[in-house]
Fold:
Amino acid sequence: MCGIIGIVGHEPVNQQIYDGLTLLQHRGQDAAGMATCDGRKLFMRKAPGLVREAFRTSHMMRLQGTMGIGHLRYPTAGGSRISAEAQPFYVNSPFGIVLAHNGNLTNAESLQSELYRTDRRHINTSSDSEVLLNVFAHELQRAAQSDKFDPQHLFEAVSAVHRRCAGGYAVISMLVGRGVVGFRDPYGIRPIILGKRESDKGVEYIMASESVALTGLGFEPVRDLEPGEAVYISQDGEIHSQQCAEKMQLSPCIFEYVYFARPDSVIDKVSVYSSRLAMGRKLAAKIQREWPDNDIDVVIPIPDTSNTSALELAMSLGVKYREGFVKNRYIGRTFIMPGQTMRRNAVRQKLNPIGTEFKGLNVLLVDDSIVRGTTSEQIVEMAREVGAAKVYMASAAPPVSYPNVYGIDMPAAKELIAHEKSVEEIRQAIGADGLIYQDLDDLIDCVRELRPSLDEFETSCFNGSYITGDVDATYLDKLQTARADANKNFNSDEEMVDVGVQ
Structure:
């Protein structure tokens, strides 16, 4: 999962992109990057770390121009060389293109071979985003043969990208001296939204992963991009759009609503906050059905993503709600951390229990999801250490039994605690007195009730159904090899990248 943003304005956009990336920081903490354009000059900065660590005053002063794009890296495909694989990526032909990508191409390996053999293009990293950029650049070069650039050339190139690329992707790309284009895969798996703002000098436009980046910068959300659609905003502020996919079916990733998106965002016309309230109500109803004589004294969320669901669950059950854990805001999301030892250590650093909220009580802990089980096991242990009489666990999501291949770096299947295990076996593994999961149909209803026209969702991590139709056992075996902790290299890469291109 990554965060992307692009702005076309009338004033320098560097500070706006910086602020927008900060609003999207939850989507990626590995590296941050920005590229801006001033006339025919391109300026780019990317480095490991959070936004505030990647950009200093000297960098911001160099990032000149009234249009630009930004990216937050959360690694899904690619290696551990953070600097080399930080985005945006750049190619100088045609026109000069920089690209920021959120998602994952499931056919990146075959595409890379194709690019080398047929398109005569070199890929310098193991990132599928560089593959996607080169496919886009190659197809744009084929489409734009005339001397005069036309937006239709972009739409032809995006159509070719849809034909050649498989997987989930939301893209914001900038053509030097021309404009910014955003597009979305034909299933709309990954989110991207368009916004605008009136200024003294005219209308300014923004595209970003989540609506919170728009509203936080004073832009008015206009609409989500449709699956397969491309939107082009010229440097002069002219906007063009076109459906570029032969077939499209909106199937947003349901895990955005469970975990990744900020609660104050609206994705595909569905409030993330409202969907999480519904998750709490549905889960409470299941508890009342399956544990009618429960002895729960208090509901405690595992902060922060589960707070909304836990509060609504407690109200529905008529049980006290308490915030029993204090969260250290400076520890990253643990299930995406590299290495089991680091994740285990991070849980204790990340959460600290308030003993008075546990002592002598039967506690229901509520989490948004249970992935590896590392966090759950340690939290159950912490609750017992501070005196909880019984510790129950509830998950606002169904069991995560399969890896996600569309942009979330969930681990290899064998590292998922729910893979080929029953709920009772998982309960024993995490040491809880009881364990209950949300049903998948209920989870889907939680989102669909807010937009009944949503027919499909990307739910592969819960049911193993991969909607693009190209994910088979061979692919998953290769993915398992790549994602298994034992096969990863977690050496840090301190190299900084700071490029100015004429």
